[in-house]
Amino acid sequence: MNNMNWLAVAPEIFLLAMACVVLLADLYVTCPQRRPTYWLTMLTLAGVAGLHIGYLDSEVSGYAMQGMIVTDPMGHLLALCATLAVMASLAYSQAYAGARDMLKGELFTLSLFSLLGISIMIAGNNFLVIYLGLELMSLSLYAVVALRRDHAQATEAAMKYFVLGALASGFLLYGLSMMYGATGSLDLAEVYKATLAGTINKQVLAFGLVFIVSGLAFKLGVVPFHMWVPDVYQGAPTAATLLVAGAPKLAAFAITIRLLVEGLINTATDWQQMLMILAVLSMAVGNLAAIAQTNLKRMLAYSGIAQLGFMLLGFVPTVVAGNTVAAGNGYGSSLCNVLTYVLTTLGTFGLIMLLSRPGFESEQVGDLSGLAKRSPWLAAVMAIFMFSLAGIPPTVGFYAKLAVLQSLITTNSPLLLQLSIVAVVLSLIGAFYYLRVVKVMYFDEPVDTAPIAQGGEARALLSLNALAVLGLGILPSGLMTLCASAITQALAG
Predict the structure, then answer these.
(1) Distance between CA 113 and CA 143 in Å, rounded?
(2) What is the Cα–Cα distance from 310 to 340, expressed in whole angstroms?
(3) Tens digits of per-residue pLDDT, 62-96?
(4) Are 44 and 18 in contact (CB under 8 A)?
(5) End-to-end distance of the chain based on CA atoms, in angstroms?
(6) Of 330, 339, 338, 169, nearest to 265 (Cα)?
(7) DSSP character string of 48-103
(8) Relative to the CA of 156, which of 50, 54, 193, 278 has its CA 20 to 30 Å away?
(9) Is the pTM of this model over 0.90?
């Protein structure tokens, strides 16, 4: 029997303990702005981030909780980025949530519990653990979306999110149960051995795989399981939208790696084809539908669908004539792509919240008209984010997409070469609606002349966010090396 290895799960234990402390401490907070709760939450997240950095530096892989939890550089990198994403989300949301009666203790505790679910998903080495992490994250986010109880649109978004999220969880659970029935184990290492031996029922395995991929596609929000994304992004308060659009995408990437690559790599020829179709459909539908949107949040939702479709392309060059180098490059470029997407998403929704004010949601593309005249700095920051999402150099989005395309081209497979050409064409189509936002900011006359609220903390964070997008684009090698190294060590372990 494996050792429990409590030290390996120290970040998760600390996060759980502090989430309970924050929940209790908030009962005694009387300040309407919840500053004590906010700072206690931020200190908690800083502590969790510090622990993950410590483990990341050690570059040691191992198991804990009798093999149900895996600790490796990839897991700590993703958990660190998820923690920083939640920190940034709460910092951006402070003024926005306060003006809409959302600034309650529940916002902070639910954010911490959703992060705990994300951390468990990222570290899971067992079907049951991954599913429990998924449910903890999902239930917390359902409640966050519904936090603004007096707002009909937010309540409707929460209902859609809950119903379709439950459907996705059901798909995944059914797939995992079939996989358990086929392999006789919940442990990913045992599942790998069983699929390698080839003594299991192929039909049950194939059915289970279809349901698992469908469940993962639901959680990622890719076509044809994307129907919840635009409605939830648009209907939810922007603070809740940011919590849904940021860190959970890292968790979805992690469980895709854990389930499909670490557990089911021997069935790669099957799921590779499914992911290829999902990727092309997501890029096509996401980019084409985004062109028609006038609501900025809805446009960013379709943009996210297209971006995650691009990320899935990195999973395609997995088994090409036994070429493991191509596989490593693909997974590493996908990791880089999803980190880049989350970084940029934080900034775009953060800026929407900064431009909003009591009684006014700055969520129409037209609301950004003439922003360059009202605030040149904010217009420049938004332009950087749009260029990154469009994949225009020297932003980090360009290099993230380039890495994915390189992983496809270097396989020398004619099919994957054609796939990369399709991806480039669809990205060019996508550039239209990103550049439209830039055009509106710089060339249209302002329709909203109200002064922009001076959120000093949010402005400083927004500036850092934009500089990170630009800096990592000018010097991308550090991030790409880190992603490649994390993936290599995770798969080697």
Answers:
(1) 11
(2) 12
(3) 777 887 888 888 888 999 999 999 999 999 888 88
(4) yes
(5) 19
(6) 330
(7) HHHHHHHHHHHT--EEETTTTEEE-HHHHHHHHHHHHHHHHHHHHHHHHHHHTT--
(8) 278
(9) yes
Task: State both tokens at 142.
Answer: 């359902």
Helix (H, G, I), strand (E, B) or coil at 364: strand
Measure the CA dihedral 50/52/56/59, to 10°: 120
Whether the pLDDT of residue 1 is over 50: the answer is no
**Angle in degrees, 0-180, between the axes of helices 238-245 and 296-313, rounded to the nearest 10:** 0
Q: Taking phi first (over 0 means left), then psi (-120 to 50 degrees means alpha), and beta for anything else, what does residue 446 get?
A: beta
Place of tokens 């302002």: 446
For residues 112 and 247, give the distance between their C-alpha atoms in angstroms, rounded to a whole number: 12
Max CA-CA distance within the chain?
69
Task: Kindly give the residue spans of alpha helices, DSSP state H, lying in 292-323.
Answer: 296-313
Question: Ramachandran region of residue 281, left (φ > 0), alpha (ψ -120 to 50) or beta?
Answer: alpha
User: How confident is the model over 265-281, as a mean pLDDT?
Assistant: 86
Structure tokens, 450 = 């109200």
Q: Tell whether the torsion through CA atoms of 267, 270, 271 and 276 is positive or negative.
A: positive
Residues paired with 64 in a beta bridge: 69
Strands (E), 141-294: none
- In order of 123, 341, 485, the CA distances from 488 in angstroms are 16, 21, 5
* CA dihedral angle for residue 302, residue 303, residue 305, residue 310, rounded to 10 degrees: 150
Contacts of 363 (CB under 8 A, 6+ apart): 234, 238, 295, 296, 297, 352, 356
Looking up tokens 């995992």 gives 176
